[in-house]
Design goal:
Strand content: 5-15%
Shape: globular
Structural class: alpha/beta
CATH architecture: Alpha-Beta Barrel
CATH superfamily: Glycosidases
Helix content: 25-40%
Number of strands: 10
Low-confidence stretches: 1-42
CATH topology: TIM Barrel
C-alpha cells in the first residue's frame, strides 16, 4: 500500500513542468453530526477534508530553499474548500525543516510559517490536522534506530504539542505512512509520542497510523511483519482521544500512483475488513488519504468508498482527499481549483458528501 513517494514524484514532475473526532475539551473536537450530508442517507461524517500539500515537497533538498524546493499552501485554498463544505485540512510538512537537529529547538522561521497557516485557517473555522510527512524517518533513518531513537520522536512531539495544546481546532497526525519497519517498533514509538503529548497538558485529538503505509486493505496481513490488526491494539492514550488513521487507494496495488481503478466497488471491498476491526475493538477510524482519477470507474469507486464510511459512521469519523496545493500542476489526483477558481472534475463526485 501507499508508495506515496511515487505519488509525490508524479506531483513533483508536474510541479517542475508548471514552474519552467470526535471528543471535545480543546482538541479538534468533531462538529455536530448534523453538520453535513451524505448521498447514502446515513448519519453524516464529522470530518470531510483535503491534504494541502507543498510544505513537505523537496525531500531531496533539506532544508531546501523556501519557494524553490517547497512551499506552504495559501490559506485561500483552504477557504475555497471550506466554501465547498470541507471542515478539515491536513497539512503535510517536513520534520527536518521544523526541527533541524534531533532534540533541538524548532527553527523559528519554519515554525512561524506553520503557525501562521494554522492561525489563519482555523480563524476562518476550519480544523487543521498537522502531519509530519516523514514515513517514520528523519533524514532517511528509521525511528527506533540508533540514529533516530524513539526518545527523539517523543521529544519532537512534546515540543510540537506545546505549541498547539490550547488550540481547539488543531489535530495531531503522529506520522505519515510508517513502512518497512517492525510493527512493534512503530507502536512503541507512537505510544511514546502520545505520552509526551499528554504530558504537556494537550487534549487534542491524535490520529495514529499503522505500519506498512497504513493501508486499510492490508491491516490484517502479515507480509510486513506483525499485522497492524494485532499490534495496534496496544496503542494507548490516557486522554482517550485517538483516531486510527488508514489510507486507501483504488488502483491495482493500492498505491494511488495510477489513474485506473480496479472496479466500481473496490473502495468498500478494501475498507470492509478494517471497518470490522474498528467495530470489534471499539476504535474510531479516519480515512487519512483517499483519491481517484477523473474517469467513470474511479468516480464510482470513490463514491462507493465514501458511502461505505457513511454507512458505518458508528466507527468512521471522516475522510481526507489526497490532494490539493499550489504546485501539483496536472497531477491526476489534485483537486486544487484551476484558474479563476474552476472546480476540478472530482469535486462533483465529492459534493454530495460535503453538503
Amino acid at each position: 500500500m501507499g508508495l506515496e513517494r511515487q505519488r509525490w514524484n508524479v506531483g513533483r514532475a508536474a510541479t517542475l513542468a508548471a514552474l519552467l473526532l470526535a471528543t471535545a475539551c480543546g482538541g479538534g473536537a468533531a462538529p455536530s453530526a448534523t453538520d453535513g450530508a451524505s448521498s447514502s442517507g446515513g448519519t453524516p461524517l464529522a470530518w470531510r477534508g483535503v491534504s494541502l500539500a507543498g510544505a513537505e515537497f523537496g525531500e531531496a533538498e533539506l532544508p531546501g530553499t523556501y519557494g524553490k524546493h517547497y512551499i506552504y499552501p495559501d490559506p485561500s485554498s483552504a477557504a475555497y474548500f471550506a466554501g465547498k463544505g470541507m471542515n478539515l485540512v491536513r497539512l503535510p510538512f517536513s520534520w527536518e525543516r521544523l526541527q533541524r537537529s534531533l532534540n533541538g529547538g524548532f527553527d523559528s522561521t519554519e515554525l512561524a510559517r506553520l503557525k501562521s497557516f494554522v492561525a489563519t485557517v482555523t480563524a476562518a473555522g476550519t480544523t487543521v490536522l498537522i502531519d509530519p510527512h516523514n514515513y517514520a524517518r528523519y533524514n532517511g533513518k528509521l525511528i527506533g534506530s540508533s540514529e533516530v531513537p524513539i526518545g527523539a520522536f517523543a521529544d519532537f512531539w512534546s515540543r510540537l504539542a506545546a505549541e498547539f495544546k490550547g488550540h481547539a481546532k488543531v489535530m495531531f497526525g503522529l506520522m505519515n505512512e510508517p513502512h518497512d519497519m517492525a510493527t512493534e517498533t512503530w507502536v512503541t514509538a507512537a505510544n511514546a509520542a502520545i505520552v509526551a503529548i499528554r504530558a504537556t497538558g494537550a487534549t487534542n485529538t491524535i490520529a495514529v497510523p499503522g505500519n506498512a503505509w497504513s493501508g486499510a486493505f492490508s491491516w490484517s496481513d502479515s507480509w510486513y511483519g506483525t499485522p497492524n490488526a494485532t499490534a495496534m491494539l496496544k496503542i494507548a492514550d490516557s486522554g482517550n482521544n485517538v483516531l486510527i488513521e488508514v489510507h486507501q487507494y483504488l488502483d491495482a496495488d493500492s498505491s494511488g500512483s495510477k489513474p485506473v481503478c480496479v472496479s466500481a466497488t473496490i473502495g468498500s471491498q478494501r475498507l470492509a475488513g478494517f471497518t470490522q476491526w474498528l467495530r470489534t475493538n471499539r476504535r474510531r477510524g479516519l480515512l487519512g488519504e483517499v483519491g481517484g482519477a477523473d474517469n467513470s470507474t474511479c468516480n464510482q469507486a470513490v463514491a462507493d468508498a465514501l458511502n461505505h464510511l457513511t454507512a458505518n459512521a458508528d466507527v468512521w469519523t471522516g475522510w481526507i482527499w489526497w490532494a490539493a496545493g499550489p504546485w501539483w500542476g496536472d497531477y491526476f489526483l489534485s483537486i486544487e481549483p484551476g484558474a479563476g477558481g474552476i472546480d476540478k472534475p472530482q469535486m462533483s463526485v465529492l459534493a454530495p458528501y460535503l453538503k
